[in-house]
Amino acid sequence: MCWDDAGAVHAMKAAVLVFPGINRERDMARTLRLVSGTAPAMVWHAETELPAGTDLVVIPGGFSYGDYLRCGAIAARSPIMDAVRVHAAKGGLTLGVCNGFQILCEAGLLPGVLMRNAQLRFICHDVYLRVERSDTAFTRGYNAGQVIRVPVAHGEGNYIADGETIARLEGEGRVIFRYSSPDGMIDPNWNHNGAINAIAGILNERGNVLGMMPHPENHVEAAIGPTDGRGLFAGLAEVLERVA
Amino acid sequence: MKARITVTLKSGILDPQGKAIEGALRSLGVSGVASVRQGKVFDIELEDVDRAKAETLLKQAADKLLANTVIENYRVDVLG
Fold it and tell me: How many domains does chain B have?
């Protein structure tokens, strides 16, 4: 928390988008409230504007529109996404988790696409992620090279893009999370969905939009398991409270 | 006026579903299948528009929604 001259508390002002078929929005809202102390606004997909002062947009996981057509394709074209584009274009922080990552790709806010898992199975278990950078708004709660344990739950998480895009992502350090072994080795046996270069999460060019397949919001409370996901939200809360 | 948009995966894009179907055909004893790629077909009925307008709007539909041109190609057929 920080205080401005008038003595008012500035807290993170998050908005969680809700589409038909999304089912992780409550986990996400609970985590945001737990870590930042403030409950996020829940914003229905048919809205055309984000609540005034929104400084973090979160697109949660689930199965928007039943994954009809392609995962995230229909949600990416819903009215609220124009407001998200404006928010992102102004440098506003935007996080997409799981289906949220698929939606950001379909909306053109992140490059590439999430294909069917290479093994054709829906995977639902904890994975290890190597955090590639700690100098982003999303990963300042971690050290570069640190390995964190978080759950995944998806059937289409196999990230791919054309060679040129992958080269750019790698060259510009925009691959933020990779599936790894518990000791941080990148190995096909630990690349659960077959994603190219074991990519689990990427950043846009400007560094304010992150998409990732795993669910950090589900590992934040010691009472129910590991807390490795907490760093991501704590880091965001810190950044946003500081700029407030 | 009726039309059909066919969406197919670009070559070089891995198609695990097509591969699984290919394997199933083989296990059913359907011989002679070299490979299978799965795609999508959209049959679209149009309001009363001329052919040129139809082609434009169908292309728009494919570009805006029906195909993800990062990984897919599409073909528009106006069936008259």
Answer: 1
B17 touches chain A (CB under 8 A): yes
C-alpha A170/C-alpha B31 separation (Å) is 43
> β-strand B72-78 against A113-115: which pairing, if any?
unpaired
pLDDT score of A102: 98
Q: Which residues of B touch A158 (CB under 8 A)?
A: 14
**What backbone phi and psi angles, to 5 degrees, belong to A69?**
65, -75
Q: Does the distance separating the beta carbons of B16 and A115 come in below 8 Å? A: yes
User: Model-level pTM?
Assistant: 0.92
Please report residues of B whose CB lies closer than 8 A to that of A118.
14, 16
CA–CA min distance A120, chain B (Å) = 7
ipTM (interface predicted TM): 0.85
| Inter-chain CB proximity A160 and B16 less than 8 Å | no
Record: fold of A2-243: Rossmann fold (3.40.50)
User: Which DSSP state fits A89?
Assistant: H
Structural domain of B67: 2-78
Among A196, A160, A75, which residue's Cα sits nearest to residue B13? A160
**In this structure, what CATH number is given to the domain that contains residue B51?**
3.30.1280.10
Tell how many helices (H) and how many strands (E) occur in chain B: 2, 3
